Amino acid sequence: MGSSDQTLPTLRWGIIGTGLISSWFTKDITAPRKTPRATHIIQAIGSSSLSKGNAFVSQNLPTLSPAPTVYPDYPSVYNDPAVDIIYIGTPHGLHKQNCLDAIAAGKHVLCEKAFTLNAAEAREVLAAAAEKNVFIMEAMWLRFRPLVSSLRKVLYEEKAIGDVRRVFCDFGLDMNISSLPESSRLKKLSMGAGSLLDMGIYSLTWGILTLESPESTSTEKPQITATQTLRDGVDIASSFVLRYPATGRQGILTSTLEARTPRTFLRLEGTEGYILVEGPAASSPASFSVYPKVNPAAEKEGSKVEGKKYDFEVEGMGFYFEADAVAESIARGERENAVMSHGETVRVMEILDEIRRQGGARFPQEEQGKGLSSI
């Protein structure tokens, strides 16, 4: 599996789920690029019906040749010998079982975030992957974007704003939840409904990426203070603070389903300046600007503070960054990728568990004996 030609590693993908995220992923990784790092073939599509699967192909991959095989179920994709890796784009509540089924068939896995509903499920899936000796990774595409690595370099190598002190990040969308049918995944608790697993995970990721220096990553557990606004059990809004006792750094992080975040979604403060990150959403950053420390006297005189802007060209949406990284890892014989390691996936899920433990959001699966981890 994961065979490569003389120049680029190649992966043949089986796609599970035909929703919006799967459409973005498949179109993005198959679009022509100037300097591709891997070859991605959409080999098979698994859907709840042939008609739905065929519609997905005609709408999102109309010129793809050869066309992928469409199956009216998921097991046929898992067991297709021509498929190397399964991409799971189903709702959160299905991730655990989808992953376990793909692993049992001996397939590599890239599973959308949030990886599972909680840390206990994540550990179960990762243990199964280790036993079967297959590659598996959470699809947190944000971590693979060049903007992120550049930002961390500016912060911790160039120390452009001095000592990092705190970050504010919000990810909000106006989803008009009350108008949605009860069958919507955004309202079904069994599917992981709420702002936290969909959007708060991005705010949390930004907090981790900006407040933790490369040399200290994962060595200090942040203290967490959290609150949630629940409506029919669904977290409409989540707010949480990460505090790192050794450095005093703080992250003030939020998510909501009732208001859209402005284009500037993140402010990062240091002892010698600040940084603003902009983009369509916290999941899709486009640029960041570095500003010097504000001089109160100059500000009083009306002097305009000029920032240094860093722009990043992305072909398409940028899902190919993570897909290429997966292909390269598998070609090297790795079973996890260091950028989104298994340990980091579990750690993030543990923090999300703690936020829900304090905020009150629960899923039916947890009421059946699957408790939240406490950190």
UniProtKB/TrEMBL annotation:
It is an enzyme of class 1 (oxidoreductase). SUPFAM superfamilies: Glyceraldehyde-3-phosphate dehydrogenase-like, C-terminal domain, NAD(P)-binding Rossmann-fold domains. Belongs to the Gfo/Idh/MocA family. Keywords: Oxidoreductase. It catalyses: D-xylose + NADP(+) = D-xylono-1,5-lactone + NADPH + H(+). Pfam families: GFO_IDH_MocA (PF01408), GFO_IDH_MocA_C3 (PF22725). This is D-xylose 1-dehydrogenase (NADP(+), D-xylono-1,5-lactone-forming). It comes from Aspergillus calidoustus.
